[in-house]
Amino acid sequence: MKIEIKGPIISDSQQWIYDWFDMPATSPKKVNDLISQALPGEDLEVIINSGGGSVFAGSEIFTSFRDHKGNVKGKIVGLAASAASVIAMGIKDLSISPTAQIMIHRASTYGEGNAEDMQKTIDMLNGIDKSIANAYILKTGIDKNTLLNMMSKETWLDAESAKELGFVNSIMFEEEFQAVASINNNGMLPDNIINKLMDEFKNTMEFKKNQNINNDLELAKAKLKITML
Q: What is the pTM assigned to this prediction?
């Protein structure tokens, strides 16, 4: 069963609006409806390209993938940012395109009211950050404080960094990269060495050419002297 995580991550109640305008968007119900159509134990193939959205919708989709009885394989083909990165962490076998990115950051919201209201909002956001970090911990094994620090800095990860830190299991087309690297490392001399040798050869040939000219002149002079005798 193929499932695409495209466009913003939204609540179930908003899905019809995006569908009405034929705009890509992903809600928990949309994903769960597709999962329910899969046969018992059927593998899921998840394609991700999303800038994120609702953290709570992302959490529900993350949980659905983690809870699926069959294998769940996924590919980040463009961007997995914010809530979409949380969803990606629910995929057991996750790969990333060499041109794709993962972005993690702290939760944000809008608020109004007095100081107590603002403090409640701050406490809520801090709690959400810790919950988000749990998803990253399950996938990477990195400690929570390190992850929270990465989230505070709004960390962007390219394919190599994502694999090195454990956010993904593999990089797509990795074998092709290795093959290219092998071909490029087949004993060929570096360009700078070749250029240096060519310059040396050129200088040597110029020297020999000048020597030959001098030798020819000396020979001609000798022949001229013999003729004049």
A: 0.76
